[in-house]
Specification:
This protein is mainly beta and 179 residues long. The chain contains two helices and nine strands, in the order ααβββββββββ. The protein has helices spanning 7-16, 25-28; strands at residues 30-33, 45-50, 55-61, 75-84, 90-97, 102-103, 114-128, 131-140, 155-166.
Length: 179
């Protein structure tokens, strides 16, 4: 069963769908980011690192104190995996650590200590000169935020967005001590 196209997406989807573009591992591996600054600082960014071994990192940076330097508490790294499903769509997972509870930079599969927080699905609509237009489906598993109710809320969002294939990550965060 495929995900439904919501009424407000149908027009955009119809205009953008110019061919059948299934994902392949050769296309998927790489770094992707948005072609705009996501906040007030050039240090405010969001990107995806999809590695050849199926490991995925989703990274966001936000220069909260506007000092022009990224600190540990201004960088969030989610670990996860990526794969291509039977419909040719790319799926990217993000995990939370159970202890201490929060975004994980070291979980790569769902276990009792690694909780699936988000499943992102990308349907590739078009690729032109390193710019990818895609349907982005967010499946958030908010139930992990409720310790007593593992059947809590779940939300699915869908939108059409454009990403850029990047030659390198926007910022080298390797020197920042992450939890």
């Amino acid at each position: 069963a495929s995900n439904p196209v919501y009424k407000h997406d149908k027009a955009g989807y119809a205009m953008l769908k110019t061919g059948d573009f299934p994902w392949t591992p050769e296309i998927a591996v790489g770094t992707y980011g948005y072609d705009t600054i996501l906040g007030e600082s050039e240090l405010d960014a969001f990107w995806f690192e999809l590695r050849e071994d199926g490991i995925a990192y989703t990274v966001s940076t936000y220069d909260t104190d506007a000092d022009g330097v990224l600190q540990e508490d201004e960088v969030t790294v989610y670990s996860g995996t990526w794969s291509i499903n039977s419909l040719g769509k790319l799926e990217i997972t993000r995990f939370y650590d159970r202890e201490p509870f929060g975004p994980s930079s070291s979980c790569f599969m769902e276990t009792s200590d690694c909780l699936l927080y988000n499943l992102r699905t990308w349907e590739l609509l078009n690729e032109d000169d390193g710019k990818l237009t895609l349907v982005n489906i967010h499946d958030f598993r908010y139930d992990i935020l409720y310790a007593d109710d593992m059947n809590g809320p779940k939300e699915v969002f869908r939108d059409v967005r454009t990403l850029e294939r990047l030659d390198t990550v926007p910022f080298d965060i390797s020197s920042i001590e992450l939890q």
